[in-house]
Amino acid sequence: xxxxxxxxxxxxxxxxxxxxxxxxxxxxxxxxxxxxxxxxxxxxxxxxxxxxxxxxxxxxxxxxxxxxxxxxxxxxxxxxxxxxxxxxxxxxxxxxxxxxxxxxxxxxxxxxxxxxxxxxxxxxxxxxxxxxxxxxxxxxxxxxxxxxxxxxxxxxxxxxxxxxxxxxxxxxxxxxxxxxxxxxxxxxxxxxxxxxxxxxxxxxxxxxxxxxxxxxxxxxxxxxxxxxxxxxxxxxxxxxxxxxxxxxxxxxxx
Length: 254
Hints:
Pseudouridine synthase, 6 helices, 13 strands
């Protein structure tokens, strides 16, 4: 279900609801949308949009967050008690997470485990950038090759990815570390100058051509956890731009 806000004959799209009840709101977040406010516009963040949808006095809490350019499932709790229970599930690693990622090249193995510690990248000009480093925090990512192929833009693979730890930018760093960066990743795609140009609002046509996509091709596809004495599974379909890119080198539907 797609929710939108209509004001003065202008319709502003809000978000797609995967599931909703008295305690939970599960959303398929669009790529390019930040989870928490960075400016005053009520519709510029997912939190702001949720408040518009539920009402200004709502006490909704985001349980998980995604990077601005990562699309997919975000869970919000409507009550403090639900937020407490869900937060504990995430902290105790009792949530199964599954992502889809489109990467450059084809991995040597059809499935694998990436275990590489992560920490601050002090050599980078980007303050938020992390990297693989021996003294970093333990990080583990599992992946499985779904499909690979060629098109006129290169050789690509669609991967199913399961992060077993929850480090910042973990999937993006790990896939780049094994030589298969995510398509459209401005920070870990191999040229961080593109990211610096992006934050300044001055991407060049060459930058955009190198990225191939407007956003990084990483999608939070599935969440699975125990809730209210039952196992719940939520799935989210990637956006059209993601599906169309996969179709260029594959006959699979996401």
